[in-house]
Write a structure and sequence with these properties.
- By secondary structure, the chain is an alpha+beta fold.
- It folds into two domains: 156 residues, no CATH class; 175 residues, Heat Shock Protein 90 (2-Layer Sandwich), CATH 3.30.565.10.
- Helices cover 61% and strands 11% of the residues.
- The chain contains nine helices and eight strands.
- Strands 2-4-5-7-6 form a five-stranded mixed beta sheet, covered by helices on one side. A three-stranded antiparallel beta sheet has the order 1-3-8.
- Helix 2 crosses helix 4, helix 7 packs parallel to helix 8 and helix 8 packs antiparallel against helix 9.
- It is rod-shaped and about 110 Å long.
C-alpha cells in the first residue's frame, strides 16, 4: 500500500456521485418524500447533493494534507478530524445557502440548514474514520514490510557470512590443484590436504572469538600461502619484518582475508612475482605491502570481504582500517590492537 485511498483519483471521481446520491436519498426519507425516488436522476437537487459531497470530500482531503505538513498537529488525529470536519461542513453550508439564494431565489430555512449540517458532519466523521483506519493499516503494513526486509537482510547477511567462512573460491581452487597432484605427486597432494584442513580448522575454531594473537594468524596464513603457491608455481613470497608481535591482537581472519584479496586481484607470473611484506608502522598500524599489478577484472567476492573487514575494524578501533595506493605501491594498514585495548564486542568473521 503506497498511498492513502483518499488520494486515489478513482476514489475522488467515483465517491462523490455515489455518496451524494445516498445523501439525497436520505434527505428525501427525512422529509417523507419517498415518492420522488422514481425521478431521482431527473431532479436537479441530486446533482447539487453530489456537488456538495465533492466540496466536503475535497476540503477534508486538503485539510488532511495541510495538517500532515504542520508537525505540531501531525500526530493529533482528534484535532485534525475536528478541523477537517468544521472546514468541510462550513463550506457545504455556505454552498447550499448560496444555491438557495441565487438559484432557487429564497433563503434556506434553519431546519433544512440544520439537516444538511448534521448529515455532512456525519459524513466528515465517517470520512475521517475511514481515513484513520486506512492510515493505521498502511502504517501496520509498512512496519511489517520493514520487519520482513530486515529479516531478509539478516538472512542474506548470515548466508553471505557463511559463504565467506567457507571461502568457496579457495576451496575450489585447492580441490582443482589436488586433482592435478593426486596422480603425479602424492606427497604434494598430502601437504595440500593438510594445509587446507588446517586453514579451515583455524577458521572454524576462531570464528566466535573477538581477537586472536598475530602469531596464530600468521601460522594459519602460512597454509593459505602454501595453497596459493601451488596454483601460482611458487611465485608468491612472504617477508615478515615484524618484531615483538606476541602482544598484538588481530580480528580472526583479517590478515588471511586481506592476503587472499590481494592474491586474487594481482597478476602473478614468473616475470612478475608477488612479494608480500608485513611491517609495523610506529605503534599504530600493521602494514601489509606489495607492488601493484592489478588484474583487468577484479574479483568481486574478495573485494566485498575486504570492505566488510573495513567495517569490522571501525567497531574495534578508533583508527580506520585503510588501503593506500601510492604510485606502484599498495599498503594495507591494520590498526594495532593490544591486550590492554581489547573490548568485548560481538565478533564478525570475515574469512
Amino acid at each position: 500500500m503506497k498511498r492513502l485511498f483518499i488520494h486515489s483519483p478513482y476514489f475522488r471521481l467515483l465517491a462523490p456521485p455515489v455518496f451524494g446520491t445516498m445523501v439525497y436519498t436520505l434527505i428525501l426519507l427525512i422529509h417523507n418524500q419517498v415518492g420522488q425516488l422514481g425521478t431521482l436522476f431527473s431532479n436537479q437537487e441530486v446533482y447539487v447533493s453530489m456537488f456538495l459531497t465533492l466540496i466536503s470530500f475535497e476540503s477534508m482531503r486538503l485539510s488532511i494534507l495541510i495538517a500532515e505538513k504542520i508537525r505540531i498537529i501531525a500526530n493529533a488525529l482528534f484535532i485534525r478530524t475536528m478541523i477537517a470536519t468544521l472546514i468541510s461542513t462550513g463550506l457545504v453550508l455556505i454552498a447550499i445557502s448560496t444555491y438557495y439564494r441565487l438559484i432557487i431565489g429564497f433563503e434556506i430555512s434553519l431546519t433544512e440548514l440544520f439537516t444538511f449540517g448534521v448529515i455532512f458532519i456525519l459524513t466528515a466523521v465517517l470520512y475521517n474514520v475511514l481515513y484513520a483506519g486506512n492510515l493505521y493499516i498502511m502504517k501496520e503494513n509498512t512496519s511489517r514490510l520493514e520487519h520482513e526486509r530486515k529479516l531478509r537482510e539478516n538472512l542474506e547477511s548470515a548466508f553471505h557470512s557463511f559463504r565467506q567462512e567457507i571461502n568457496p573460491d579457495l576451496l575450489y581452487d585447492s580441490l582443482e590443484e589436488l586433482i592435478l597432484c593426486m596422480h603425479r605427486d602424492t606427497d604434494t597432494a598430502e601437504e595440500l590436504i593438510d594445509s587446507l584442513a588446517s586453514l579451515y580448522r583455524y577458521q572454524l575454531v576462531h570464528r566466535q572469538k573477538e581477537f586472536v594473537s598475530l602469531d596464530e594468524e600468521l601460522s594459519a596464513l602460512r597454509h593459505l600461502l602454501r595453497l596459493a603457491n601451488q596454483k601460482h608455481q611458487g611465485q608468491i613470497n612472504w617477508v615478515n619484518e615484524m618484531t615483538g608481535a606476541g602482544d598484538i591482537q588481530i580480528v580472526p581472519g583479517a590478515l588471511i582475508t586481506a592476503t587472499d584479496s590481494i592474491i586474487r586481484n594481482t597478476l602473478i607470473s614468473e616475470q612478475s612475482p608477488l612479494t608480500l611484506t608485513l611491517t609495523r608502522e610506529d605503534e599504530e598500524y600493521l602494514v601489509l605491502h606489495h607492488v601493484l599489478n592489478d588484474r583487468l577484472m577484479l574479483h568481486a567476492e574478495s573485494l566485498d570481504a575486504f570492505q566488510r573487514l573495513q567495517r569490522s575494524y571501525s567497531v574495534y578501533s578508533d583508527k580506520p582500517f585503510i588501503q593506500v595506493k601510492a604510485g606502484y605501491e599498495n599498503y594495507v594498514k591494520f590498526p594495532l590492537i593490544t591486550l590492554d585495548h581489547t573490548v568485548a564486542v560481538a565478533h564478525e568473521s570475515f574469512t
